[in-house]
């Protein structure tokens, strides 16, 4: 067991080897494709609506035509506005719904966000994820107020839970300056990520950032883990259109090859797209055509997806604001997936006029998508009437 705050690469390697030999199915490779960070269905009192949360997961999956990965209790799921019982309830529902689909022959993974404000709650969430049979966990070390050393947190604290419970899950790091704890560096240091990647269970990172920060990760990725064992997933999913767009003209080709040289030809394993809560089939197809380099289809799918991003922007007091989570929930209510579009306290909500304007924009986006996209890649929802009255849990 490792103690202290400073960990050498030798200590990390020894810990990784011990865990690999005893517990980890180290043949695991990071899942490629679309990760849907599902929203949390809440009532006006902040309680989780269980049946509606199940509907959110089923809609994201689209019977196998949507998500490749369901990511529960992430930023889009308002983890930083919920307490641990609600985080864990959302995680359990996601695992249960995905296992139902797996019994029907559809393969996908469930990643559970374990981050909490305290180290104790974060480790409790990790133990819960192991107990419910999650496929992987996502942790944002810089968001945990009392986890001062990200490397020690991954190697010592998480490693001890794996040792105690006798099971190891793939761990994906989460780098997002918007949720970093006060006084912390906005982004993980590359040297720390390199150290953490030497642990056999650290298998990738979700990066919500600018293109420049993402490029830094891709340049360094060849030094993370073994070949193909460490995945990079942009949280700003719209960047995939820029990253994968084939070159046009001589100057474009030169720029394209130079950019590929700078990132050592390392491209993302997939994307984590908050907007895919509402348009999961469209985002799945967009990922397919981007990773396949199909320029005409990339342009065709890029337009409505970017239109949705723009539809979530408003002006208040002369300043632009973006209320993405509130818009996602309003759209899901409009589609019929949920009856409530309530957001957690602290999450920016839509004003009445903004809600009307968003719905006008959203309906126009859906009409344009229906007219321009392949019909089999338009998200659809057939409501299932629950066998009993939905129960609210707080």
Give a brief rundown of this model:
This protein has 13 helices and twelve strands. It is α/β, with parallel strands linked by helices and 394 residues long. The strands form three sheets. The protein has an eight-stranded parallel beta sheet. The chain has a two-stranded antiparallel ribbon with strand order 2-12. Strands 10-11 form a two-stranded antiparallel sheet.
Summarize the SSE layout with pairings:
Layout: H1 9-22, E1 33-37, E2 48-49, H2 50-61, E3 69-72, H3 84-103, E4 109-113, H4 119-132, E5 136-139, H5 150-165, E6 171-176, H6 190-197, E7 202-208, H7 211-220, E8 231-234, H8 239-244, H9 249-262, E9 270-272, H10 280-291, H11 295-311, E10 313-316, E11 319-322, H12 324-335, H13 352-372, E12 392-393
Parallel strand pairs: 1-3, 1-9, 3-4, 4-5, 5-6, 6-7, 7-8
Antiparallel strand pairs: 2-12, 10-11
Helix pairs in contact: 1-5, 2-3, 3-4, 4-5, 5-6, 10-11, 11-13, 12-13
Overall number of domains: 1
* Name of the CATH homologous superfamily: Aldolase class I
Ends distance: 37 Å
Helix tally? Answer: 13
Strand order of the largest sheet: 8-7-6-5-4-3-1-9
How does this model look, in words?
The strands form 3 sheets. The chain has an 8-stranded parallel β-sheet. It is α/β, with parallel strands linked by helices. It has helices at 9-22, 50-61, 84-103, 119-132, 150-165, 190-197, 211-220, 239-244, 249-262, 280-291, 295-311, 324-335, 352-372, and strands spanning 33-37, 48-49, 69-72, 109-113, 136-139, 171-176, 202-208, 231-234, 270-272, 313-316, 319-322, 392-393. It has one domain (9-294): TIM Barrel (Alpha-Beta Barrel). It contains 13 helices and 12 strands.
């Amino acid at each position: 067991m490792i103690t202290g705050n400073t960990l050498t690469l030798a200590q990390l390697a020894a810990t990784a080897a011990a865990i690999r030999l005893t517990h980890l199915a180290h043949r695991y490779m990071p899942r490629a494709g679309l990760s849907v960070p599902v929203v949390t269905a809440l009532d006006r009192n902040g309680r989780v609506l269980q049946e509606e949360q199940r509907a959110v997961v089923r809609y994201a999956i689209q019977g196998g035509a949507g998500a490749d990965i369901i990511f529960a209790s992430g930023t889009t799921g308002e983890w930083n506005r919920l307490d641990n019982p609600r985080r864990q309830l959302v995680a359990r529902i996601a695992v249960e719904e995905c296992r139902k689909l797996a019994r029907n022959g559809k393969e996908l993974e469930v990643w559970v966000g374990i981050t909490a404000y305290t180290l104790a709650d974060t480790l409790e969430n990790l133990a819960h994820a192991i107990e419910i049979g999650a496929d992987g966990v996502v942790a944002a070390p810089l968001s945990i107020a009392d986890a001062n050393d990200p490397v020690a947190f991954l190697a010592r604290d998480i490693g001890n839970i794996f040792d105690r419970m006798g099971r190891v899950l793939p761990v994906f790091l989460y780098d997002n300056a918007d949720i970093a704890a006060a006084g912390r560096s906005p982004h993980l240091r590359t040297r720390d990520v390199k150290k953490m990647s030497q642990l056999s269970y650290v298998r990738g990172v979700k990066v919500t950032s600018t293109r420049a920060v993402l490029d830094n990760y891709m340049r360094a990725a060849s030094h993370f883990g073994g070949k193909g064992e460490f995945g990079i997933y942009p949280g700003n999913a719209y960047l995939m259109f820029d990253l994968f767009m084939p070159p046009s003209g001589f100057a474009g080709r030169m720029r394209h090859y130079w950019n590929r040289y700078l990132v050592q030809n390392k491209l993302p394993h997939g994307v984590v797209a908050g907007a895919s809560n509402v348009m999961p089939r469209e985002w799945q197809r967009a990922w397919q055509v981007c990773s396949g380099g199909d320029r005409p289809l990339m342009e065709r799918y890029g337009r409505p997806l970017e239109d949705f991003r723009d539809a979530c922007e408003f002006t208040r007091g002369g300043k632009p604001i973006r209320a993405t989570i509130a818009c996602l929930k309003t759209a899901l209510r409009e589609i019929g997936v949920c009856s409530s579009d309530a957001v957690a306290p602290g999450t920016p909500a839509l004003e009445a006029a903004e809600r009307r304007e968003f719905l006008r924009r959203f309906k126009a986006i859906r009409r344009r998508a229906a007219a321009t996209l392949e019909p089999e890649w338009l998200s659809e929802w057939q409501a299932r009437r629950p066998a009993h009255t939905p129960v609210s849990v707080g």
